[in-house]
């Protein structure tokens, strides 16, 4: 794979061809889509994307933390092509074929849910969450859920009921699924209890036990705690290990399940197979999607055979375990296992160290956090007050785009750095140098 030195820009964005497509897009596609800038991609390889006007852009987004193996990895493309030449679809819920079993066996072997696991395949993250909620209700025979403020679990009715990251995601859609109570996420940089870890003695978890479960939510009615081990959309927030352990204990005490939503943090992105692996905690149900099949639409629910004991016909779908997606998933798994998970640690640590150096130069960088290649850079108006600077985040993303670096935000004011796991240190440095220049320019203007 050719390693380019830096982005190649051939004029102003959007270029003429991109502008024409953006115009047609706005007339033909749903206005609910949230495009940050007019990147109109024609082809991509590794971490480099070429737009329709020939601009070459560096990808720090991976299609929202999806393209684990980089764009069009030859091994993934080969697996997809070979399977496509055999057959495209034959409803995995009603018939049998080998790729579905092969991928399930791989996932079962790595899932921390237990030793004898089962997989349910689906088509997206939201559908995985939807199924996990149903499974938790089915298994526990309880109706309610605990979810977290700042969480993102998807947009379908059950999933959006657990989502709690932006009101736009909910406005106009009520009534959503009843029975979801949101509680504060263990977010130490913005503690809602105004405490500091570890002196706080995990006030956020105690609040669930001492207040929520005693006043508004009978614990014996709670099927599961729905939890992102690293909050993604909410701002790439890493909770303290002790808090995750305490949530597990709380769930055990009251007979609730713990659902670890690994849709963004899973599949090696954080340097381990699953985000929750960093905390030494065993979840009951895992949800996956995004990086699972390198960009082919695929989701999965994993649980022990004891928990995933629903009867034939109780849950299913037409496209479950699509053979082409399974082939992509197998190739992705093998690549992540062989090299990419290690690369995530190596390049992630490098980026983290470089960002910490950058933080010394740029007072607008309030916090840097993350694991592996799931890194958040929180921008603030004032480091002491930690006042969030949403406009600055937007300005940085726009200016980075103009210089050929694709980034997204998360939370209200955090730069989300989630490049393909195949990124090299050299490529990471190209992007970080651009970010450094952008911060210099944009922060000075303010
Ligand atoms: C943690 C998490 N859960 C669920 C979802 C929903 O996935 P999808 O967009 O594939 O429905 C997302 C998407 O960003 C996510 O980050």
Mean pLDDT comes to 97
Task: Tally the beta strands.
Answer: 16
What's the domain count?
Answer: 2
Radius of gyration: 22 Å
Q: Helical percent range?
A: 25-40%
Structural write-up:
- With about 450 residues, the protein is α/β, with parallel strands linked by helices.
- The protein folds into two domains: about 15-70 and about 340-445, Aspartate Aminotransferase, domain 1 (Alpha-Beta Complex); about 75-335, 3-Layer(aba) Sandwich (Aspartate Aminotransferase, domain 2), CATH 3.40.640.10.
- It is about 35% helix and about 15% strand.
- The protein contains eleven helices and 16 strands.
- The strands form three sheets. Strands 4-10-9-8-7-5-6 form a seven-stranded mixed β-sheet, with helices on both faces. Strands 11, 12, 13, 15 and 16 form a five-stranded antiparallel β-sheet that branches. It has a four-stranded mixed β-sheet with strand order 1-2-3-14.
- Helix 6 links the parallel strand 5 (about 145-150) and strand 6.
- Helix 3 packs antiparallel against helix 9 and helix 10 packs across helix 11.
- The chain is globular, with a radius of gyration of 22 Å.
- The two termini are about 40 Å apart.
- The model has no long low-confidence stretch (mean pLDDT about 95).
- Bound molecules: pyridoxal-5'-phosphate.
- Pyridoxal-5'-phosphate (PLP) binds near residues 124, 228, 232, 264 and 289.
């Amino acid at each position: 794979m050719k390693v380019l030195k830096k982005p190649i820009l051939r004029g102003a964005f959007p270029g003429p061809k991109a502008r024409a497509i953006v115009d047609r897009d706005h007339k033909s596609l749903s206005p609910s889509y949230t495009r940050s800038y007019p990147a109109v991609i024609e082809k991509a390889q590794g971490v480099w994307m070429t737009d329709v006007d020939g601009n070459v852009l560096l990808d720090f987004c991976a299609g929202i933390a999806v393209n684990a193996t980089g764009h069009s990895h030859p091994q993934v493309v080969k697996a997809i092509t070979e399977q496509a030449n055999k057959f495209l679809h034959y409803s995995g819920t009603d018939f049998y074929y080998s790729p579905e079993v092969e991928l399930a066996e791989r996932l079962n072997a790595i899932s921390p849910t237990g030793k004898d696991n089962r997989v349910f395949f689906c088509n997206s993250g939201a559908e995985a969450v939807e199924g996990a909620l149903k499974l938790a209700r089915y298994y526990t025979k309880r109706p309610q859920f605990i979810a977290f403020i700042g969480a993102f679990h998807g947009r379908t009715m059950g999933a959006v009921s657990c989502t709690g990251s932006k009101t736009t995601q909910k406005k106009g859609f009520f009534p959503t699924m009843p029975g979801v109570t949101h509680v504060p996420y263990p977010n130490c940089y913005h503690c809602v209890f105004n405490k500091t870890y570890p002196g706080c003695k995990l006030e956020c978890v105690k609040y669930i036990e001492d207040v929520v479960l005693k006043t508004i939510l009978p614990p014996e009615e709670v099927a599961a705690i729905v939890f992102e081990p690293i909050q993604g959309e909410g701002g790439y927030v890493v909770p303290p290990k002790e808090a995750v352990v305490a949530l597990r204990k709380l769930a055990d005490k009251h007979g609730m399940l713990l659902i670890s939503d690994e849709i963004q943090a899973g599949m090696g992105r954080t340097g381990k197979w699953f985000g929750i692996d960093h905390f030494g905690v065993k979840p009951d149900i895992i949800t996956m999607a995004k990086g699972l099949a390198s960009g082919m639409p695929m989701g999965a629910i994993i649980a022990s055979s004891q928990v995933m004991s629903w009867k034939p016909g109780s849950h299913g779908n037409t496209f479950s375990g699509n053979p082409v997606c399974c082939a992509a998933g197998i190739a992705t798994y093998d690549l992540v296992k062989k090299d990419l998970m290690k690369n995530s640690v190596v390049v992630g640590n490098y980026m983290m160290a470089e960002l910490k150096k950058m933080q010394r130069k740029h007072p607008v960088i309030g916090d840097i956090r993350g694991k592996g290649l799931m890194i958040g850079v929180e921008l603030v108006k004032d480091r002491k007050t930690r006042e969030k600077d949403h406009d600055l985040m937007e300005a940085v993303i726009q200016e980075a785009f103009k210089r050929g670096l694709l980034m997204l935000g998360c939370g209200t004011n955090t730069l989300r750095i989630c490049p393909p796991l195949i990124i090299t240190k050299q490529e990471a440095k190209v992007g970080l140098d651009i970010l450094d220049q952008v911060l210099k320019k944009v922060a000075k203007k303010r």
